[in-house]
Amino acid sequence: MVVGIIIAVVVVLLIIWIITSYNGFVSLRNKTEEAFSAMDVSLKKRYDLIPNYVETVKGYAKHESQTLEKVIAARNSAMGASSPQERVESENVLSGALKSLFAVAESYPDLKANENFMSLQNQLNRLEEEIAGSRRYYNGVVNKYNTKTEMFPGNILAGIFHFERKPLFVVDNSEERQNVKVQF
Question: In the chain, what is the straight-line distance between the N-terminal and C-terminal CA atoms, in Å?
Answer without folding.
Answer: 87
